[in-house]
Specification:
Blueprint lengths: L7 H12 L3 H14 L4 E7 L5 E6 L9 H4 L11 H5 L10 H7 L2 E7 L6 E6 L9 E3 L4 E7 L6 H4 L5 H18 L4 E6 L2 E6 L5 H12 L1 H5 L1 E8 L2 E8 L11 E5 L2 E2 L3 H15 L9 E6 L17 H11 L3
Parallel strand pairs: 1-7, 11-13
Antiparallel strand pairs: 1-2, 2-6, 3-4, 3-6, 4-5, 7-8, 9-10, 10-13, 11-12
């Protein structure tokens, strides 16, 4: 069998297998792009949990007309330029594969207007190798990405999607994690034309506690204490639930490293040990907490694929710090 170069469409669909697992995966990539663009307000619209339609609109810096086509090309990004940039990346995303991968398994429309622009421009993709024309349109400063009919051209992937309720649950959980990582950004969620949540920006402590109550529930805020601790370049702050806030399941455990949500068994074990030593909480009663950790960028690995279930490479430098009594 002769060796041949794969088509760009197939290459993008292979990459999509790493990036796009379900509608929530698409939402994650688009939200991270919006946050990296400096958005202060993001609106999310879902239909059938995002399988039929998913739209993210932000008021960020926008994309110039001559860069729209490039934005849908692989390995194109504004976030890194050198290996040194990669070693100290501060953005949420940088791979430059999300948009073309999403476009390869859906019907995608990208609309954007720069802050100083007078006209917005739109480009579309129909899930194939062809590039749509860039046309002028009406749009406020910022960017909108609309994704229609996810996996319409990859039926084998689409059949593995769960019920609308389950898929929406994944999207809602993701949005909650984002909401707790960026108190300064307002987030609106609409599902099937019905407003689900409207989270205002929280610039002060009282507003942050209100957002925490909106996401985690008022009972958690009432039975949690705010903590803040710093050792050298490491800083830890957040809310720790008292034993009375413990639950039967680990659904109120949020851990962030440099603003990025992390789910890691090592970190979770370190927190459980600290709780067990101080409050004698058993393994059957998971504690509730919201913890943010700040560590030097050089001490964390950025080479983690989106599909990885663990983030030990990021979280490892925090473990000893979190285990302190």
């Amino acid at each position: 069998m002769s060796i041949r170069r794969l088509s760009p469409q197939l290459v993008n669909q292979i990459a999509a297998g790493e990036i796009v697992e379900r509608p929530a995966s698409v939402l994650k990539e688009l939200l991270e792009n919006s946050l990296d663009a400096g958005a202060t307000h993001i609106a999310i619209e879902l239909e059938q949990a995002g399988v039929k339609r998913l739209r993210v609109t932000d008021d960020g810096s926008g994309i110039a007309k001559d860069e729209l086509t490039l934005a849908l090309s692989r390995h194109a990004t504004s976030k890194i330029g050198t290996l040194d940039d990669l070693a100290s990346v501060a953005s949420l995303g940088f791979r430059g594969e999300a948009l073309p991968s999403i476009a390869s398994v859906s019907r995608l429309t990208l609309t954007s207007r720069t802050v100083n622009g007078t006209v917005a421009w739109r480009i579309g993709s129909r899930g194939d190798d062809s590039e749509g024309a860039i046309v002028p349109t009406a749009h406020p400063a910022g960017t909108s990405v609309e994704v229609l009919d996810l996996f319409f051209n990859v039926p084998a992937r689409r059949k593995f999607l769960r019920t609308v309720r389950t898929e929406f649950g994944h999207a809602d959980t993701l949005l909650r994690r984002i909401a707790l990582s960026r108190f300064d950004v307002a987030l609106d969620l609409t599902h099937n034309g019905r407003s689900i949540s409207r989270l205002r920006a929280a610039p002060d402590p009282a507003a942050r506690e209100q957002r925490l109550a909106d996401v985690c529930g008022g009972r958690f805020v009432e039975q949690a204490v705010y903590v803040e601790h710093e050792v050298g370049d490491f800083r830890l702050h957040g809310w720790l639930g008292l034993p009375t806030a413990s639950r039967t399941q680990a659904d109120l455990q949020y851990f962030y490293v440099n603003g990025r949500a992390v789910r890691d068994k090592v970190l979770a074990h370190a927190v459980r040990q600290a709780y067990a030593a101080m409050f004698c909480i058993t393994a059957g009663t998971p504690p509730a907490y919201f913890i943010c950790s700040s560590i030097p960028r050089w001490s964390m690995s950025t080479c983690i694929r989106p599909s990885m279930k663990s983030a030990s490479a990021i979280a490892a430098p925090c473990t000893a710090f979190c285990s302190r009594p």
